[in-house]
Design a protein that fits this description.
Uracil-DNA Glycosylase, subunit E, 4-stranded parallel sheet, alpha/beta, EC 3.2.2.27, Uracil-DNA_glycosylase-like, 435 residues, two-stranded antiparallel ribbon
């Protein structure tokens, strides 16, 4: 799996024939093709390859509002290349063809300085005589996975991994099937403390390209190293170049991003960051030699997202998940679904209660204006009403029986009085009258 994500003219990953051609010609153009056009101005969420639907459910805001504002300028790459000397074009072939244009537009002055050209002369000799990591095509993979306008978080590492099948241009990241190194495993432990739903990649992997695609700039202080020789390319010129990258993020991301510095060397490189605009998170390095001194409790992953949410809303957060189809925000989504169901259930009960109440009112009123008081009793202001009561039964000559009644006053509440004769049926009242 190559970390070269957007290649010249949208060409696919080269096959074996392309590799042979590169070896024969000794020209990196045979690997990458012609210079590619500028990157599309899209948010990290639209470029991510592993972001599942659960991620999109949590991003309620548009990509425009969730992406830090960047001041950009038009860059005519071909015109700039035409101003270079033949030696500069040869030395800067890698930068011309593999450094994302969103970065190249702002770094073009830096890479023609004497210091950087000396670095490239040194690297040319190293590539010709030594094994150097990462592979050439991956040195600037961080720029292609995370173009300047998409940066939300910058995590600064130190030296690339110096063993085979490890370094591929993103700090702390390794390609499968290489297992995650100890520092990265500690990063996963710290992350799981912030987000319990986080699951490390399968097969003990450590590929962090999903983070880079979501706007996490995984930058090392030195971008190359000699095989099996840690810090072998230190103090050769990379430090100045990557400091310029950090400064660019500080200057160009006007609305603010998060800078993460693990370890004292990384912390020193954050000295120019404007902390009134940006958030800087510092802690010890996640190395097994220092992680126990506070890295696991630093909470940087959640703190970064809380700050981003305040700036850009929930859509501005970074989903730290590295397993396709999962999200560290799944618990929020489940809770939102439960709350929605509760609201829907409550609304249904309110509707049912409303219907029942209307039915009762209709029953009391009889459902007709003419029969408005049918089935109810109307009392005056003193709580009294006139009612007819049976007072006597008289037998007539034809063997029939007449019932004599007279109007009496009934007091409100008499029906509820215990032992009230009015509680008895009319037949029982008549019998008592006869007695």
């Amino acid at each position: 799996m190559s970390s070269l994500k957007r290649k010249a003219n949208g060409s696919s990953q080269p096959g074996s024939d392309a590799k042979k051609s590169k070896q024969q010609n000794g020209n990196i153009m045979s690997f990458f093709g012609a210079p590619k056009p500028g990157p599309p101005n899209s948010s990290p969420s639209t470029r991510s390859q592993t972001l599942s639907q659960t991620q999109s459910q949590t991003q309620s805001q548009s990509s425009a509002s969730a992406t830090p504002e960047t001041v950009t300028k038009k860059f005519d790459k071909a015109k700039w290349v035409s101003t270079l000397t033949p030696e500069q074009r040869e030395l800067l072939e890698l930068e011309i063809n593999t450094l994302d244009e969103s970065w190249l537009a702002h770094l073009k002055e830096e890479i023609v300085t004497r210091e950087f050209l000396d670095l490239k002369r040194f690297l040319k000799r190293e590539w010709e005589t030594k094994t150097v990591f990462p592979p050439k095509e991956d040195v600037y993979s961080w720029s292609r996975h995370t173009p300047l306008p998409s940066v939300r978080i910058l995590i600064l590492g130190q030296d690339p991994y110096h063993n085979h099948s490890q370094a591929h241009g993103l700090s702390f990241s390794v390609r499968p099937p290489t297992p995650a190194p100890p520092s990265l495993r500690n990063i996963f432990i710290g992350l799981s403390k912030d987000y319990p739903l986080f699951t490390p990649p399968p097969n003990k992997g450590g590929l962090l390209t999903p983070w880079a695609d979501r706007g996490v700039l995984m930058l090392n202080t030195c971008l190359t190293v000699r095989a099996h020789e840690a810090n072998s390319h230190a103090n050769r010129g990379w430090e100045r170049f990557t400091q310029r990258v950090i400064d660019l993020v500080n200057e160009r991301q006007k609305r603010g991003v998060v800078f993460v510095a693990w370890g004292a060397p990384a912390g020193k490189r954050m000295g120019k960051v404007d902390e009134r605009r940006h958030l800087v998170l510092r802690s010890v390095h996640p190395s097994p030699l220092s992680a126990h001194r506070g890295f696991f409790e630093a909470g940087h992953f959640r703190k970064a997202n809380e700050w981003l949410e305040q700036k850009y809303g929930k859509g501005g957060r970074v989903d730290w998940s590295l397993v396709e189809g999962r999200s560290v925000f799944d618990d929020e989504i489940e809770k939102a679904d439960e709350d929605e169901k509760k609201v829907e259930g409550k609304g249904g009960r309110e509707v049912e209660n409303g219907k029942a109440e209307k039915e009762v009112k209709k029953e009391v009123k009889g459902g007709d204006e003419d029969d408005e008081f049918e089935g109810g009793e109307i009392f005056d202001e003193e709580g009294l009403k006139e009612v007819e009561a049976v007072v006597e039964k008289v037998e007539t000559g034809e063997g029939k029986e007449e019932v004599k009644t007279e109007v009496v006053m009934k007091e409100k509440g008499d029906d509820k009085k215990e032992g009230d004769e009015n509680d008895a049926p009319e037949e029982e009242q008549a019998e008592k009258m006869e007695e």
